[in-house]
Amino acid sequence: MVVLNKIYTRTGDKGDTALGNGDRVAKHSLRVTAYGTTDELNSHLGVARLHAEGDFNAQLSMIQNDLFDLGADLCRPDMEKDAESEYPPLRATMAQVERLEAEIDAMNKDIAPLRSFILPGGSALAAHLHICRTVSRRAERCAVELAEIESVNPAVIKYLNRLSDWFFVAARAANDNGETDVLWVPGANR
């Protein structure tokens, strides 16, 4: 259980922060950038949810919770020590990735195949989901870059990769299953 009764601690006033294992690192470290970008994505998703209803809103709520799981995973670098830890840290799982895949398939079955690239937009929900898609891609790039030099749970990278696909298909679903997508017209303004 998390208890936050004092919000400021002053411990990061010199530009460093604590990871989940207690290590202190620069606030601009790749690890902090990766989980910070995941947090940013979660905030954008909160705005998108203002335009969602019913089952769709419930799926977005699950994704928001997953993103906190990913942030918790990313802020705890020492995966090799998980087995010996008294309190094993929270890690993203392949089951979360597989759930996204099933949801993508379910949404996509009613959407006509693309015959053109689409521009971000259409409905308010679709526009916000496209922002989520691009921030998800950036979070994925941060996690991939981090994985080149430090230990990163492969399920985190797979989740972020699949999540950007989820947001793309969801944006099309939010645009009347692609009927009101805004199509790119190459060279239209030459």
From TrEMBL:
Reactions catalysed, as given in the entry: 2 cob(II)yrinate a,c diamide + reduced [electron-transfer flavoprotein] + 2 ATP = 2 adenosylcob(III)yrinate a,c-diamide + 2 triphosphate + oxidized [electron-transfer flavoprotein] + 3 H(+); 2 cob(II)alamin + reduced [electron-transfer flavoprotein] + 2 ATP = 2 adenosylcob(III)alamin + 2 triphosphate + oxidized [electron-transfer flavoprotein] + 3 H(+)
A GO BP annotation: cobalamin biosynthetic process
EC number assigned by the record: 2.5.1.17
A GO MF label: corrinoid adenosyltransferase activity
InterPro entries named in the record: CblAdoTrfase-like, CblAdoTrfase-like_sf, PduO-typ
Keyword Nucleus annotated: no
One GO CC term on file: cytoplasm
The protein's annotated pathway: Cofactor biosynthesis; adenosylcobalamin biosynthesis; adenosylcobalamin from cob(II)yrinate a,c-diamide: step 2/7
UniProt keyword terms in alphabetical order: ATP-binding, Cobalamin biosynthesis, Cytoplasm, Nucleotide-binding, Transferase
Location in the cell: Cytoplasm
Domain Cobalamin adenosyltransferase-like: 7-173
SUPFAM superfamilies: Cobalamin adenosyltransferase-like
Broad class of where this protein is predominantly found: cytoplasm
Family, per entry: Belongs to the Cob(I)alamin adenosyltransferase family.
Protein name in the entry: Corrinoid adenosyltransferase
Organism: Halocynthiibacter styelae
